[in-house]
Amino acid sequence: MKFAHLADTHLGYRQFGLIEREKDFYEVFEKVIDKIIEENVDFVIHSGDLFETARPSPIALLTFQKGLLKLKGAGIPMYAIAGNHDIVMRNDSIPPQIIFKKLGLKVISPINTNYMHGDIFIAGLPFYPSSQLKNLKAKLDELSKKAANHEKSVLVLHQGIDKYFGYNYELEIGDLPDNFNYYALGHIHNYINDAFGKGRLVYPGSGEIWKTNELEDYAKNGKGFVVVDFEEPKPLIKRVKVDMPREFIKRSLDYNNLESGIAGIKDTIKDFDKKPILDLEIRNVESDTKGVYELINEELGDLALMIRPNFIMDDELDVEVIINDSQVGPKQILKEQLKAYDDEAVTNLAIDLYEYLSKDKLDESKDLIEQFYEEYYHTSVENIEEIEDETLLEEPENIQTKEVLE
Ligand SMILES: [Mn+2]
Questions:
Q1: Cα 314 to ligand 1 centre (Å)
Q2: Is-contact 348 354, C-beta < 8 A?
């Protein structure tokens, strides 16, 4: 038994507002599907962020449908969970993956947490935000107990884990149950393949370069998916790389040698099939950033899809180092400030609220607060209303007030 594991395909993402980049993500997804079929696997697992948003465009939906039907034609079913991008954190909402159930997509959800594929037990959950940590841990505990009855088991999750993800994580590595054979994870866009539990823990990485901070890992590990040989309880991992449709060129130029630097880049990219994205850092700029920008544009503009210049003044080098430090950010500052409350649940609530409110997700924020109060104070808004109603009935003189209120 063999399966393919992929994640974070982010279909529909229009990077830098460019339609060309949206198409690149579709192109890569199509290539991945073809390669999966070539690999002759028995099934596929997608670990979330299939789509960029919870309301994907028709083109994004159709691209996935085409891939899913192609796999179906080859007799390969797909199991999928929703990630933080394709989920709306509301009680009554459903992820877009649900649309494809009739086409055979096996959606792993809090209601359908597990499946059997032959002798393989496949269990998982969609993305849970930090404020839902207690629920997530309880659910993981349930799944772990079920997995104990099987020799071969897979746990599918879309979460950040402290060991691999700096500070912005939901789970600590010790929170993961240790009796699964394969951990099919999503969320971290870099490739990670680690020993854990009874086998391996893998983040296959994102399908395309979603953010430029993935470039370092891309240079080292490429982008793609993994094929897991699960003949034995100890799974064997094979990384399958997929060529990106377009190059990202990252270069550092010195203002004092600008012309030769530009000529070097021109020479590198002049024969590219697709115009690359240029990430340029120009050091030692004295003051004439406009002039430098115009020169770069004049020389390279026609050869590049986009040029992203970053000017670094002579005395700015030290500042840059601090800004690039991933430990410093609004969430980290929030966390520091909330230490005074000494309550992890409150801190997590604040971080999730910051995340939603900075994206104008007002309904989700409201739901989040209601959920928090329900769990934290073991009461709900409805319960409070009921109690009030009873009081009103007990005291006849208040009935009139109630009628007025209604
Ligand atoms: Mn993602």
A1: 36
A2: no
Quickly tell me which residue has 């340029």 as its tokens: 280
* Segment 71-112, tens digit of pLDDT: 999 999 999 999 999 987 666 778 999 999 999 999 999 999
Separation of 199 CA from ligand 1 center, angstroms?
24
Classify residue 171 by its DSSP letter. Answer: B
- Nearest Cα residue to 303 out of 268, 259, 252: 268
Tokens 């063999």 appear where? 2
**Confidence check: pLDDT of 382 > 60:** no
10 counts as catalytic: no
Global pTM value: 0.78
Q: How far is the CA of 393 from the centre of ligand 1 (A)?
A: 52
Which residue among 46, 85, 117, 187 is the active-site one?
Answer: 85
Rounded CA-CA distance 319/289 in Å is 18
DSSP letters along 83-106, please?
A: -SSS----TT---GGGGGGGGT-E
Q: What's the 10 CA to ligand 1 centre distance in angstroms?
A: 7
